[in-house]
Design brief:
This is ABC transporter permease [Actinoplanes friuliensis DSM 7358]. It is a multi-pass membrane protein. InterPro entries: ABC_BtuC-like, ABC_transptr_permease_BtuC. Keywords: Cell membrane, Membrane, Transmembrane, Transmembrane helix, Transport. The chain is mainly α. It has a single domain, classed as Orthogonal Bundle (ABC transporter involved in vitamin B12 uptake, BtuC), CATH 1.10.3470. The radius of gyration is 22 Å and the shape is globular. It starts with 10 loop residues before the first helix and ends with a helix.
Length: about 350
Amino acid sequence: MTTQTPLSPSPESSARYPVHRGKLIGLVTATGLLAVVCIASLAVGTENVSLGTVWSAVTDYRDVGDEWIVHELRIPRTVLGLLVGLALGLSGTLIQAVGRNPLADAEILGINSGASLFVVSAIALLGLTGIWTYIWFAFAGALFAMAVVYLVGMSGRAAVTPVRVLLAGVAVGAVLEGIGFAIRLRHPRAFDNMRFWEAGALDGRPLDVALAIGPFIAVGAVLCLVVSRSLNITSFGDDLAKSLGGNVVRTQLLSLVAVTLLAGAATAGAGPIGFIGLMVPHAVRRFTGPDWRWILGYAVVVSPALLLAADIVGRVVIRPSELPAGIVTAFIGAPVLVWLIRRRGTDRT
């Protein structure tokens, strides 16, 4: 009779270790890249600021010259970008995991459009101007749009497919955006100070905006952590997940709450910004594999870096004017969506 030494690693664990070490190294590298992008976000813009001035503005702020630009304008902008990017990346990853739809994203499925419509309605019809008040309408709008999209996608006799849900989201999102645009035309003065918000931008927001949406994004991120372990099981389908001991209803319910908080808070803070949640899971899957826990971990770091990079590009591409970050991400994300649809069509042939 042979016994195995408890301290000796099994072949399975020794095979896994290098894989996890590689993923961890990649995550640390992505975190370093995020730090570089954050520094660039503080230094680069229509008026570039030296790194010494950036350091002085952060550590020993004096209300003079370029330090004022960094402290009063770019620090709130960067903090908002970090929060909104994190929220968009996590919400998109969660939608793809729970819905088993690799083409999903909060913007593509019309969730951001629903949140935007409810915020626009609150501002124009109820006179609400502070984010502490209309953020609740963003949550309600995100939940409303999500429900309508899936009701439309599941209606009829045809089988529910990811592409069908995608088309339903595009259609519902277009309708909601049209209604919101009509409301803005009827009440133009209410939106004189929110024109960049409509296009999805990070500038012109005080630090209070980030403070308002931060707690909700934190709760959504914690919920993502709670459901992360069960996402790999639920991705096999409801029946198989139940046979493996997965609580499908609990995972779907918590994910619904998390997506509502994340997408609603991101839209309330920066307006409708799309394609971040679509691109990031596909980009990081090359390093993480199909494990949703690692994909969520990478999304926490890569998504803010991508959004801040898009914001930096928007600052310099048409100097001295600026291009909203939402437009930059649309220029990048739309071709990615077309490529993903074509690839899925090719894989099925």
